[in-house]
Amino acid sequence: MDFLNAFSHLDWAQVIHLTWQHITLVGIAVSLAILVGVPLGILMTRFPSLAGPLQASATVLLTIPSIALFGLLLPVYSKFGQGLGPMPAITAVFLYSLLPIMRNTYLALTNVEPGIREAARGIGMTFGQRLRMVELPIAVPVILAGVRTAVVMNIGVMTIAATIGAGGLGVLILAAISRSDMSMLIVGAVLVSVLAIIADLILQMLQRSLTPKGLLK
Asked: Start and end of every ABC transmembrane type-1 domain (predicted)?
């Protein structure tokens, strides 16, 4: 009952504002990770010797606790007057998103059937043409699976960014903790979970719509 009472007394204008902030922060960070991670995945297929070091570096970044990573970024951005706010949060989520996107791109491209690659090479396609017209379209479902992982994971991570003034739904959770209001804390956690589920469903539909018909089961 306390949960339902807290839910019914929410300031929905504030909730919508914080939800939009949350979506924007995660969206910017993951979009940047796609712009960097996909080319890095392609680079690893072109130069396999880079695969180990790049994936190891991204894995190390992923093992750093989010609150510690925010702390490491604060003095860097403080030099530019951006120590508190969205910039450290976006950077941290960008770094966390790199591994699943980069790894999935690499795995998807390396697992393209050799016969398909040879057929494209046999008709005179260059590396760029094969990549653009054959390999990437086949790899899109696996790449988007990495994007889904990054988005769902980092919707949760971004709640911690409220501690450095970045905004988002973490503001509700911090306010609940400061008031020892367990009902409001549960409401905040539920809202974050619902947002992650909705984002995953939308990306799942996008993944299916972009999958070549020949690969659909």
From this structure: 19-203
